[in-house]
């Protein structure tokens, strides 16, 4: 019978999760190789991810009344106070890249 391993700290779990992400391995194979319980890995990943990335909330979209004098654009007001203006006709791949970067942990 193996001796029970001491519990990992939050920083140790962060490092393990990042190491798995960079390894290119599946979570199951990474956990087997590093003798980590995959259930614990998934729980910690969810716990740490939800701390860093609060739920994205949707807002009411209001339309301006009157004539539109400039090309349509989309403005996103982020929870940190920043504003992102997206022009009409943006390439979908570019928009996906920008949104992906916004979702990444800082």
**Mean of residue pLDDT values:** 80
Distance between the termini: 41 Å
Side by side, the strands of the main sheet go 1-2
Tell me the β content. Answer: 5-15%
- Tell me the total number of β-strands: 2
Overall 3D form: elongated
What characterizes the major β-sheet?
Answer: 2 strands, antiparallel
User: Approximately how much helix is present in the residues?
Assistant: 40-55%
Structure summary:
The protein is mostly helical and 106 residues long. Helix content is 45%, strand content 9%.
Tell me what the structure shows.
The chain is mainly alpha-helical and 106 residues long. The protein has a domain at 10-52. Helix content is 45%, strand content 9%. Strand 1 and strand 2 (83-87) form a beta hairpin. Helix 1 (10-23) crosses helix 3. The mean pLDDT is 80.
Keywords, please?
single chain; 106 residues; mainly alpha; 4 helices; 2 strands; elongated
Summarize the helices and strands and which ones pair or pack.
Elements lengths: L9 H14 L3 H7 L4 H15 L20 E5 L5 E5 L4 H12 L3
Antiparallel strand pairs: 1-2
Helix pairs in contact: 1-3
